[in-house]
Amino acid sequence: MTRARTPYDGVALCAPVTVAYQRYSDQSAHWWAGRAMRGLAESTGFGPVDIDGFCFASFSAMPDTAVGLVQHLGLSPRWLDHIPTGGASGVMALRRAARAVQCGDADVVACVAADTNHLDSFRHTLATFSRFSQDAVYPYGFGGPNATFALITDAYMRAYGVTREDFGKLCVAQRRNARSNPSALQRGELTLDDYLRARPISDPVHLFDCVMPCAGAEAFIVTTPEIAARHGLGVARILATIERHNAYPDDPVQLRGGWAMDGESLWAMAGVAPADVDTLQAYDDYPVIVAMQLEDLGFCAKGRAAEFIRATRFEIDGDLPLNTNGGQLSLGQAGAAGGFQNVTEGLRQVLRQPLGAQVPDADIAAISGFGLVNYDRGVCTAAAIIEACR
Amino acid sequence: MSHEKRDPLARLKERHVPPGMRSRAMQAMAARAAMGRFVLQGCVDCGAVTYPPRDVCPRCWGELRWADHGRGAQVLSVTTIRVSTDLYFRGQLPWRMGTVALDAGPVALAHLHAGLTAGDQAEMRLMLDRGGNAALFALPAGKEPDMSDRQWREFVVPVKGRTILVSDARGAIGRALVQALLAAGAGHIVAGLAPPARIADLSDSLLGMERVQSVPLDLTDPVMVAECMSKIPGPLDIVINTARLVRGGGVSADGNLVEQRRMLDVAVLGLMRLVQASAPLLQGRPSAAFVDILSAQALAGDAAFAGYAAGEAARHALLQSFRHEMRATGVRVLSVFTGPSDDEDHQSVPPPKVAPARLAREIITALETGREVSCVGDVAVDAMDRWLADPALYTRERNL
């Protein structure tokens, strides 16, 4: 019944760019996007005329969409996409751009996520986020995503016996990873004790379970191996991707994501298994979502995240190097760029061009995205497996 | 009661209301919540019940209709919010809310009564929040809400210990109300008495009660309205407008214009005078309300009481606008519809009639359940049902 998926032959992923984050910025999303384009140009030599595909994600470029950005940035692409899925946008940009390049609709696609963070941006972004949020979430204490994920975390901890110590171990490991990354906004030492003693934000979510909103931009290029070779760029190939939206709508509380629905097809297409993965870049808006991805992507069985976390080292030199740039919990969450940093970091590690420490012998990266709390849960999930071409 | 000593330069506590943006579908839910109903949308085609409000059925893309549903629910998960960027909730922290599975099917976020935890059975109430928008509140199943519950008090108007102005305490309804408010534990009742003062007032046992203060009040006299407010010791929490003058008569005949003018002055401009004098006082209070009693004749006119019905209809319209004005202040504006009351004004009207004591009890219930629109007695309930079902038909049959 299931049709075989066409492999991503003839597609190259290259040129990961991160524009160093800032807690607050007086610049616009357009400026941050411009810095990302400049970063792409510097690492590839591509100018405006070379880029014939453009894919954009942002929460703060209003009133503009990808269309406005095209004119603002002086591009004349023959392929254009705007991805509104936040934390899932990086993988989605990658897989859309890959098919466009593979089919000849574009040769060089710049995938860019950029968001600014003014002093009061977070409150404004929240207030107008979605209709269901306005109608049925904000009136209940206006706790923002912290409250939504507190409810998910509360149910998840009781369902599967995961403890704060388990979540703490993930956060502490990610902070250790961040310490070698000069562009992470939070690089101070974090002990398990610090984590456990942090002030409660929305029980059981405490301070170090939460990401810090910030400004930043991320970008990468999807093109053909031939074009990449002509420009002397190191590339990775895409082994497999998945995406899913509004998975399991009848689950009363989100205890699993769309990865659980599509994980098998991901590994079947990739031809590798979770054990073959050298580094996992999982979406980490809250550690409960990281735990969910470990289960739903098959790194451990459903309901076994606690055991798995206790038995695994997640540092850069560990058993499963996780969020090796520190993840959003240490980098900061630069809006939609938070949904791209998993792609750029996974790509950097397999290309052996890290911002901080290098995962030893990294060839295969698993990248996972999760986006958009429209009502009581994240709606969009996506994942990709990439491998360096050497 | 002693006069309050206040620092005139003290910074007053600002009153905020919860975030107010809502979809049109959610406004429809609020319109039903205002009447105390617990409603959800169901699909006309497949029967699926849905929440949050949508514009189309998520199962079959069929048409959705509002319908009443069972109030049962189970609490699935709970959080205590300790940080918020919203000014209203910042003033209320910490705030407990949770996810509940409604017996009707959908999952909803809800405010939680103290003591409710994950796994508990709950009974849902569809309330109006401080901004006048619909909100789900979960109460412990089978128990009455605790009026001292800090979160519940944001959705209701407690009577106990509060200062309440009754604009006409001499009529049958006003007297019954003063009695009922005393029994409900009101702290101080300001009883408006239209001049001329009567010898009998001096020996009236009700007006002589310790917690009752008689004040001359005629809503047609702006000076007297202002003076009445100045005589209230301490902050005013609730105003209940009981003043009315009921006279029959049609439009082209039987209408004594002197009577009609006085009647409209009390009903329409009198309401505006009372509102203009009291609203600034109410706005500073943590849980304030203005209650008006309306005849169900306000909905569709009444050929036998044409002028009176016109005055009631005018007040009905004024209350909608007043409610809009108070939305940003958190002051609740309650409309209590009633049929003919069993008093001297309705001697010519056959039963069923509403006993003043019943009306008084229902006004207190409206306050303590935060119900914006109530209908008291069979006549008012029947009128509202018919009007909601088919306003054009109801208007015809009331004036045949």
UniProtKB/TrEMBL annotation, chain A:
Keywords: Transferase. It holds the Pfam family Thiolase_C_1. Coiled coil: none annotated. GO terms for molecular function: acetyl-CoA C-acyltransferase activity. Residues 260-374 form the Thiolase C-terminal domain. InterPro entries: Thiolase, Thiolase-like, Thiolase_C_2. The keyword Repeat does not apply. It comes from the Bacteria. This is Acetyl-CoA acetyltransferase.
Automatic annotation (TrEMBL), chain B:
It comes from the Bacteria. InterPro entries: ChsH2_Znr, NA-bd_OB-fold, NAD(P)-bd_dom_sf, SDR_fam, Thioester_dehydratase-like. Residues 34-63 form the ChsH2 rubredoxin-like zinc ribbon domain. Gene3D superfamilies: 6.10.30.10, NAD(P)-binding Rossmann-like Domain. PANTHER family: BLR3430 PROTEIN (PTHR34075:SF5). This is NADP-dependent 3-hydroxy acid dehydrogenase YdfG.
